[in-house]
């Protein structure tokens, strides 16, 4: 009887941890911002107006250089928007054109990242996988004498 109570308590705590991890990972990956930019399906051609380089330290201690393009585009209602893309691996040269996805209510949160299944469902996938492993572990805990 005590092992079932321990297994149930473990399951509840582990599912809570999985859901919290899923939410935090989603926020870290900027899921809410990206989903908002993709939600309306609005796209525009943006022009790279400049590049900013940033030198950071790699986990091994060596230098890493990240390039962040500043992109400028015109929204469907005619407003010109300029933003720095920080999440894409895209490195256009100044003057190059790229497609951006944006939300009409907040065009400054535009992105060059194309919608992907993984990014749209990251929170659900992480929470679901964690909950599945919690269930399997709880069953094993309950069944082992």
Provide structural commentary.
With 145 residues, this protein is an alpha+beta fold. The protein contains 4 helices and 5 strands, in the order ααβββββαα. The protein has helices at 2-28, 31-39, 117-120, 122-143; strands at residues 42-57, 63-74, 80-84, 97-103, 106-111. The chain has a 5-stranded antiparallel sheet with strand order 3-2-1-4-5. α1 (2-28) runs antiparallel to α4. The longest helix is centred in the first third of the chain and has 27 residues, at 2-28. The radius of gyration is 21 Å and the shape is elongated. The model has no long low-confidence stretch (mean pLDDT 88).
Task: Describe how the helices and strands are arranged.
Layout: H1 2-28, H2 31-39, E1 42-57, E2 63-74, E3 80-84, E4 97-103, E5 106-111, H3 117-120, H4 122-143
Helix pairs in contact: 1-4
């Amino acid at each position: 009887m005590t092992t079932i109570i321990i297994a149930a308590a473990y399951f509840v705590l582990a599912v809570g941890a999985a859901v919290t991890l899923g939410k935090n990972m989603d926020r870290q990956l900027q899921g809410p911002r990206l989903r908002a930019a993709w939600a309306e399906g609005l796209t525009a051609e943006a022009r790279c107006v400049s590049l900013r380089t940033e030198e950071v330290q790699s986990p091994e201690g060596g230098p890493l250089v990240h390039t962040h393009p500043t992109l400028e585009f015109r929204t469907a209602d005619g407003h010109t928007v300029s933003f720095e893309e920080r999440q894409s691996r895209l490195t256009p040269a100044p003057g190059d054109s790229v497609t951006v996805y944006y939300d009409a209510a907040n065009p400054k949160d535009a992105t060059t990242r194309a919608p992907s299944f993984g990014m749209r469902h990251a929170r659900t996938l992480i929470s679901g996988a964690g909950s599945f492993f919690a269930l399997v572990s709880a069953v094993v805990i309950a069944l082992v004498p």
